[in-house]
Write a structure and sequence with these properties.
The chain has five domains: 59 residues; 74 residues, Signal recognition particle alu RNA binding heterodimer, srp9/1; 179 residues, Rossmann fold (3-Layer(aba) Sandwich); 70 residues, Helicase, Ruva Protein, domain 3 (Orthogonal Bundle); 199 residues, Peptidase M41 (Methane Monooxygenase Hydroxylase, Chain G, domain 1), CATH 1.20.58. The protein is α/β, with parallel strands linked by helices. Bound molecules: adenosine-5'-diphosphate (ADP), magnesium ion and zinc ion.
Length: 620
């Protein structure tokens, strides 16, 4: 588990060694082939010289014969290690030995010494090539561990002491904290849960936009429970070589098991858990294997063994469904962008570590930073402190923070939406339009939340409605109420702001689809009567069967009639919505003001505000 990637120094040393080895090999080879001090004689010439009595001694090898000439008696005898005077390539000559004996040449045999230097050279070359190859492989694989660390997971094991994050450091995500508290309690005192036989969630998926504090929350869980925090990013699992990722997963869980109780945190789960059988691009097979291994591991470990897997993603919609099944990441915790009071709390958390002048008004900053995630707010405070430091001041002032906000906002505008005051107003009226029409017409569901905090990637604001009971059927009046609710946003914009905007596009397409289904599928039009003109059924957003988008087979006149009827259904719903909102004009304005200030209202608050406003209206 503690396998670390080789430090760069080490790797540099190794490549140096490889280069040296290659050099040495080359030198040895050259030495072999370089014309040495010894002259090479033709065999015939050798024979002639022996015959002439000029040769004093020879050493006969398998392939070569080396020898020395006779020296004049006055000359010093050759030192034993000095090079021979000549050498000859040996030929099959049966008269060689008799001739040497006859001429009084001293001779001895030897195994050719050359094979030794040859094999030494070859061995060194081989070694050099191996080293070089390994070095190249490492470069290809990137800095993520070489051949020897194949399949070793690089989970950073942070001991208990290293996790200093606590729940107090994470603000504005109270709901998520509440849900995770259970995990903390289990890790602290698993016995209590085991005694009752309660099954503890094995995997918890943190879902939310980037920078909202998912990683921070996961750490805080480990910090609160005082257990080790083993973290890995999904993209780290997916390697070039098939099978490596799977081995990593196996490794990771083995290590976790050894340290239980502990938290395993997989960041960017989507990089690994993308639904299988998607695009056939690249390392698809590798990712599938890795994902399968993860599923196997999560299923495999015994219940209540003290390892809890947390994962984070900002794209839950692309995750493989198998990951979300019971016993895996069956619990999902939404970590959304903070509302105004949440932003205030986050600002306060980050203000703890910087010194702020007394004129800094956190309330105002919180009010002006709609759409900022926790990371953006942390960034804002830091920028403010930097500006103060650059001025040489000892504390950041309100002006510093104001300037910091402008800087951060400029960066944010490129990445995501920061609404202008006019746009915020428009979003508030639009959402309120949906909410009030939905609330007044009732129907099968009640409004549970209205919000103007941008959510996810698409919506600028949203209105949540929840059915009051399980529904399998819907009546015509309920459908008409829903249709009016859908159109309520656009109607409110037209009524109270004078004109409509592009913000209602998806409302309109949903409404049209719904109206079409009412006319051609459900026989809810007076003039067409109980005819089913639909084709290609599918389950729609309302849990009902709907026509499959496109035109039906009915031609000419009938098609015109269908269009007219759809238009009639839509326009009727629109006038119902208009009536509802017109009757409550002053209430809409006062509730919109509250919504702009608070940024979200839950269903109860909305109902209370509506009642109060209507009562005041009647009294006036
Ligand atoms: P995510 O994992 O959701 O992308 P991070 O947890 O990495 O976001 O957040 C990055 C940084 O932003 C954190 O280290 C922290 O300083 C700050 N931050 C984000 N959300 C919060 C929050 N809810 N409360 C306090 N600080 C936050
Ligand atoms: Mg993160
Ligand atoms: Zn809308």
């Amino acid at each position: 588990m503690n396998e670390r990637e080789p430090p760069t120094d080490d790797r540099r040393a190794r490549s140096l060694l490889a280069a040296l080895t290659v050099l040495l090999g080359a030198v040895l080879l050259l030495a072999e082939f370089a014309p040495g001090a010894t002259a090479v004689l033709p065999y015939s010439e050798f024979r002639t010289r022996v015959q002439a009595g000029r040769v004093s001694s020879v050493v006969i090898g398998d392939r070569m014969i080396r020898g020395r000439y006779r020296r004049p008696a006055t000359a010093a005898p050759p030192r034993p290690r000095s090079p021979m005077d000549f050498e000859v390539v040996r030929v099959a000559d049966p008269q060689l030995i008799p001739m040497l004996a006859e001429k009084g040449v001293a001779f001895e045999g030897t195994a050719d010494a050359r094979w030794l230097s040859w094999s030494l050279t070859a061995g060194l070359m081989l070694l050099a090539m191996l080293l070089l190859g390994r070095w190249l492989l490492q470069r290809v694989q990137g800095p993520t561990g070489g051949v020897l660390s194949f399949g070793k997971s690089r989970g950073r094991v942070a001991g208990e002491k290293e996790v200093t994050v606590r729940f107090d450091d994470v603000a504005g995500v109270d709901e998520a904290k509440r849900e995770l508290l259970e995990v903390v309690e289990f890790l602290r005192d698993a016995e209590r849960f085991k005694r009752v036989g309660a099954r503890i969630p094995r995997g918890v998926l943190l879902v939310g936009p980037p920078g909202t504090g998912k990683t921070l929350l996961a750490k805080a869980v480990a910090g609160e429970a005082r257990v080790p925090f083993i973290s890995l990013s999904g993209s780290e699992f997916v390697e070039m070589f098939v099978g490596v990722g799977a081995a990593r997963v196996r490794d990771l869980f083995e290590g976790a098991q050894a340290q239980a109780p502990c938290i395993v945190f997989i960041d960017e789960l989507d990089a690994l858990g993308r639904s299988r059988g998607g695009s056939g691009m690249g390392s698809n097979e590798e990712r599938e294997q890795t994902l399968n291994q993860l599923l196997v591991e999560m299923d495999g470990f015994a219940t209540n063994n003290g390892v809890i897997v947390l994962a984070a993603t900002n794209r839950p919609e692309i995750l493989d469904a198998a990951l979300l099944r019971p016993g895996r990441f069956d619990r999902q915790v939404l970590v959304d962008r903070p509302d105004r009071s949440g932003r205030l709390a986050i600002l306060k958390v980050h203000a703890r570590t910087v010194s702020l002048a007394p004129d800094v008004d956190m309330e105002t900053i919180a009010l002006e930073t709609t759409g900022y995630a926790g990371a953006d707010l942390a960034n804002l405070i830091n920028e403010g402190a930097l500006l103060a430091a650059r001025r040489g001041a000892s504390a950041a002032t309100g002006a510093d923070l104001q300037e910091a906000m402008e800087r951060v906002a400029a960066g944010l505008e490129r990445r995501s939406r920061v609404l202008s005051p006019d746009e915020r107003r428009r979003v508030a009226y639009h959402e309120l339009g949906h909410a009030l029409v939905g609330e007044v017409l009732g129907g099968a569901s009640r409004v549970t939340k209205v919000s103007i905090v941008p959510r996810g990637l698409g919506a600028l604001g949203y209105t949540l409605k929840r059915p009051t009971e399980d529904r399998y059927l819907m009546t015509e009046s309920e459908l008409r109420a829903q249709l009016a609710t859908l159109l309520g946003g656009r109607v409110a914009e037209a009524l109270f702001l004078g004109e409509v905007s592009t913000g209602a596009a998806s409302d309109l397409s949903q409404a049209t689809e719904m109206a079409r289904a009412m006319v051609v599928e459900f026989g809810m039009s007076q003039r067409l009567g109980a005819l089913s003109l639909g084709r290609g059924r599918q389950i729609g957003d309302w849990g009902l069967l709907m026509e499959n988008g496109g035109r039906s087979e009915h031609g000419g006149e009938l098609a015109d009639l269908v269009d007219t009827e759809i238009r009639l259904v839509v326009s009727t719903a629109e006038s119902v919505a208009r009536k509802v909102l017109e009757d409550r004009g002053p209430a809409v304005h006062s509730i919109a003001a509250t919504l702009l200030e608070r940024e979200h209202l839950d269903g109860g608050e909305l109902r209370t505000l509506l009642e109060e406003a209507m009562r005041g209206d009647v009294a006036r």
